[in-house]
Amino acid sequence: MTTRAHSFNAAAAQYAANRPSYPPLLLDTLEELAGRPLRNAQVADVGAGTGIATSLLHARGAKVTAVEPGDGMAAEFRRNNPGIPLVRGDGNHLPLATASADFITYAQAWHWTDPAKAGPEARRVLREGGALALWWNMSDNSQEWAAAQDARLRDFFRHDSFRPASGEGKQRGGHPWTDVPGLDFTEREIPHTRKVPLATHLANLGSHSAFLVLGEERAREFLKREHELLSERFPDGTVEECYVVHVRLALN
After folding, report:
1. What letter would DSSP give residue 21?
2. What is the pTM of this model?
3. Is 241 helix (H, G, I), strand (E, B) or coil?
4. Which backbone phi and psi does 42 adopt, to 5 degrees?
5. Which 3-state string (H, E, C) describes 149-207?
6. Which end of the chain is more exposed for a tag (fewer CB within 10 A), N or C?
7. Which of 69, 70, 54, 137 is CA-nearest to residue 103?
8. Nearest C-alpha neighbor of 30 from the set 247, 216, 252, 236
9. Which pLDDT tens digit goes with each residue over 211-237?
10. Shortest CA distance to 166 belongs to which of 144, 192, 136?
11. Rounded Cα–Cα distance for residues 69 and 95 (Å)
């Protein structure tokens, strides 16, 4: 797990350039479930990576501080978000004051924590009534081509631990990693799509930890074959990717 978590540091620019973002409805949903606006809220975005979610929270008006452990990801974050505070640390040992946050958010990141440590840490840092929000972008495999690609990925890796844009793992909606003693989570699912060049789609796949730890030659082998197959499916070179954001939010 540690090796895979740190694999992103060498591919931070690729991650920033090709990973999907999140729809505005996600932020609306956070506000609805938390019962308060993000504007002027003190937000800690943990496992912030290159800042995809952090920048959206900042644009909504939140007073957001990013928390990121990785050297490469932190450097890319600072390039992309020079005006947003960033502190080095992780969810297991938050470098934040007790009762200092209105929201703690984890975008594609909670599964890299030790929940037995990250859960109590989140509750320590949250103010009374503050919200812990966890979410993952999941590929919507109701599309035939996406389901077929997912099957090829499972066959290539010989297990079911890689799913595109899934937060590096299986669906997290009811995953025990999201259970935090004392917190009662509400779940929502938010569909969204994006149209991207085929090269972006493949670079997004390649930015997942399963590929990053695989080795360049074997990763290139799979992605080259995907390029051939998808070029037939999308002759204009544009891929429509469909996602569902799985959100879990609980009040402290």
Report:
1. -
2. 0.87
3. strand
4. -85, 115
5. HHHHHHHHHCCCCCCCCCCCCCCCCCCHHHCCCCCCCEEEEEEEEEEEEHHHHHHHHHC
6. N
7. 54
8. 247
9. 877 777 888 889 999 999 999 999 999
10. 136
11. 11
For 128-186, what is each residue's pLDDT tens digit?
Answer: 999 999 999 988 988 899 999 988 988 888 754 454 444 444 443 445 457 788 899 99
What 3 state SS string does 76-126 have?
HHHHHCCCCCEECCECCECCCCCCCEEEEEEECCHHHCCHHHHHHHHHHHE
The token pair at 93 is 């040992």
Distance in angstroms (rounded) separating the CA atoms of residues 161 and 13 = 24
| Amino acid present at 79 | R
Residue positions counted in the chain: 252
Assess contact for 75 and 50: CB atoms under 8 A.
no
Helices (H), 207-247: 209-212, 216-233
Nearest to 189 by CA among 112, 252, 126, 242: 242
For the stretch 60-71, pLDDT in tens is: 999 999 999 999
Residue 64, by phi and psi: left (phi above 0), alpha (psi -120 to 50) or beta?
beta
β-strand partners of 197: 238
Side chain identity, residue 129: G
Pairing of strands 101-107, 126-139: parallel
Coil, helix or strand at residue 137: strand
* Kind of pairing between the strands at 126-139 and 238-251: antiparallel
